[in-house]
Amino acid sequence: xxxxxxxxxxxxxxxxxxxxxxxxxxxxxxxxxxxxxxxxxxxxxxxxxx
Amino acid sequence: xxxxxxxxxxxxxxxxxxxxxxxxxxxxxxxxxxxxxxxxxxxxxxxxxxxxxxxxxxxxxxxxxxxxxxxxxxxxxxxxxxxxxxxxxxxxxxxxxxxxxxxxxxxxxxxxxxxxxxxxxxxxxxxxxxxxxxxxxxxxxxxxxxxxxxxxxxxxxxxxxxxxxxxxxxxx
Lengths: 50, 172
Known about the structure:
Helix content of chain A: 55-70%
Largest sheet of chain A: none
Strand content of chain B: 15-25%
Oligomer: heterodimer
Distance between the termini of chain A: 51 Å
Number of strands of chain A: 0
Radius of gyration of chain B: 16 Å
Order of helices and strands of chain A: HH
């Protein structure tokens, strides 16, 4: 499993979107959106099924 | 017009600007290697591994405090951010401090992770750009290996999901 993981990681790191300096703002924006969604679902009121 | 910076961005920019020695790890770090949001894994926080020195931990806490973060340790408020002897104990114990922002961002401030020292992770970390700040992220192989070495069921389950998703991407 270790070798497989290493090869997998190396292959992913070689992708063009993972070059050093790539813009990764979207990662944190997506995380913040996910948090917002979680908060909204916690606030949502349950309604009775008809 | 670009969207406003999330509290996650604000926090990481504050660490970078304050010249804190840190590297992102955990699922939050692994997500930096995803191609797009659909490939990223759901997580509630970002794990920030700090160089385990009192001065560095102090710089990190001060920088985050100034942009609105507050801290918890073991579920209790942590207010001794200027107390070096307390910070030294946190480092000795390898404890994690939770930095929370009112906008719901959470950064877990760690001084140790399974399998690698800070120096080993920082040595070859990849620096990505987030809103003009350089954010160092641990090499993907090391982040995955750390999860494997931890042996926790949730980490092993994550690795299975990660591999399955990578195989699916190959098939596309």
